[in-house]
Amino acid sequence: MTAPTPPRLRFAPSPTGYLHVGGARTALFNWLLARKTGGTFLLRIEDTDKARSTDDSTRAIFEGLTWLGLDWDEEVVFQGANLERHRADAARMLASGAVYRCFCTSEELTKRREEAEARKEAFKYDRRCDLLPPAEVQRRVSAGEPHVLRFRVPAGETAWDDLVHGVITFPNKDIEDFVILRSDATPIYNHAVVSDDIAMGVTLVMRGDDHISNTPKQILLYQALGATLPRFGHLPMIHGTDGKKLSKRHGATAVGDYQHLGILPQAMVNFLALLGWSPGGDFDEVMSLEQLIEAFSTDGLLRKASVFDPKKLEWMNGQHLSRLPLEALEPRVTPLLIAAGLATADDLAARRDWYFTLLDLLRVRSRLVDDIVRQAGPYFRDTIEYDADAVAKQWKEPAVVRPLLAATRETLAALPDWAPATMEEALRALAEAQGVGGGKIFQPLRVALTGLGVSPGIFDVMVALGRARTLQRIADAEALLGTMG
RNA sequence: GGCCCCAUCGUCUAUCGGUUAGGACGGCACCCUUUCAAGGUGCAGAGACGGGUUCGAUUCCCGUUGGGGCUACCA
Question: Which of A32, A368, A406, A445 has the fewest CB atoms below 10 angstroms from its CB?
């Protein structure tokens, strides 16, 4: 036995959209394995389709990976920059006889394909150009006739021991002589991938299930190029709730969408990791990136496609929201608070302790980062808005509520200190003196202080608000109630 | 159509031949409680079907059915 060499892994997205959650999960598994084994995680942008590739997409991929915390170890490789090597590799295979020139135009091919389909036959390139006499090939090449390079698929079968599926075998007769170089001398996907993976020294190719049928072609290419085969592993797809491949019509599918929805990167990564992978046995599903690395193993990779459940993602996010150290949560919330016009960076920095206490209060009742911001208004604004439903329910009888609030205000104003225990004791005593239950005091008070029917515990609210503002809010409410009676 | 992959509660999963088939999300009920969350407890809910192999199959094999992917001079 030799000591296992740490693998060189890569994530190779094409910049034709945004970073899809499926792609993000593929990247994550590659990254986790690299971090777990001391291997190397590489990033390659497959921009050979110039018509569809955009700089925006490339940027979205970088931003998405960075947001998720998936860093890559070497300089990003842009596939488009390797054109000359792709051509040289193709030329080598032409020289060795592994590929041949094909003069069939795509129009002809399309026509033949349609005819075959009309006859309900499976279309496969018939190798007619491989049968051309060498002299004719020479003549047409000299005449400058456009042509592609096709790989001559040998007889036999192609198989590999897939990291997640075990042995997968394809009879070569089912693989057509595929194009590797277009007539404009640019490489086709499979060829560019193999050429680059060889050049980058990739030893383990982990990618989506949808690439299984590309793998035998790529293996043939490795062999024709005389290169050492990497290990292959095919991850199951992620489906929408309807069981179909996740796509735009399922709603948010880009990781950027979730970032904007208020999902934490920790939660996204945690959720994605558990889609198609399980550490096995009993375990706490809420895990940090570090814990994921620790627990990760290719043994736990599943074969079945999984359905993306936004509900569970939200739950997962709520868990992370509550468990994250406040120092780590703060930078996720602060920009949103500032953007909402509730506070300034200086203000928050100046009362950091107060701010952290408030965050701790609000995050328990939040699933999304935005939920925190949505609840924060009453603690920052000078004036509050009254929720109509809350008013209708808790201030139903102004003539009763108003004097109770006045008594509450006076009781609070007379308190020796501004501590929850003191407040509770005094207000419960007040309730008893008034012959009402605590709720009759607390609920209208909540509306007076926050304008809302729901909030953190009322004493926590008063501490967060401070004595002056609390008393002022109650006085404001009394005045408002006076106009309602 | 051809080739390939897949198959445990609605969803994510545990189980590596012997379990009352366990957990999580979601749902429902209850508890806690000044509201809402959080938390706690409980309930409902699964081995697609048919053959084998075996003393014994969710688990191994074959078939059927169902789902998915690929089938370009896209990636």
Answer: A406
E strands within A291-406? 306-307
A28 burial via Cβ count (<10 Å: 0-12, 13-18, 19+): buried
Helices marked H in A143-186 — which ranges? none
One-letter identity of residue A427: L
Structure tokens at A366: 């939040």
Stretch A334-353: mean pLDDT: 96
Output the pLDDT for position A1.
46
Q: Stated in angstroms, how far is A320 CA from B10 C1'?
A: 25
| Catalytic annotation present for A440 | no
Length of chain A: 485
Element of type H or E holding A162? strand A157-162
Helix/strand/coil percentages in chain A, nearest 5: 55, 10, 35
Closest residue (Cα, C1') to B70: A213
pLDDT above 50: residue A347: yes
Closest C1' nucleotide to A116's CA: B1
**Is the pLDDT at A229 greater than 80, yes or no?**
yes
Residue A277 and residue A296 in contact, taking contact as beta carbons nearer than 8 Å: yes
What is the arithmetic mean of pLDDT over A408-432? Answer: 92
Q: Are the beta carbons of A192 and A86 closer than 8 angstroms?
A: yes
Alpha carbon distance A148, A134 (integer Å): 16
Q: In whole angstroms, how far apart are CA A422 and each of A76, A160, A179, A405, A465?
A: 61, 72, 81, 18, 16
Domain A82-235 has CATH 2.40.340.10: no
Q: Which residues pair with A207 in a beta bridge?
A: A234
CB A90 within 8 Å of CB A98: no
Q: Which of A248, A304, A311, A440 is catalytic?
A: A248
Element (H, E) at A260: helix A255-261
CA distance A172 to A153: 7
Task: Kindly give the interhelix angle for A398-413 and A438-450, rounded to the nearest 10 degrees.
Answer: 80
ipTM value, please give it.
Answer: 0.95
Domain A388-482 is found in CATH 1.10.10.350: yes
Q: Considering the entire predicted model, what is its pTM?
A: 0.94
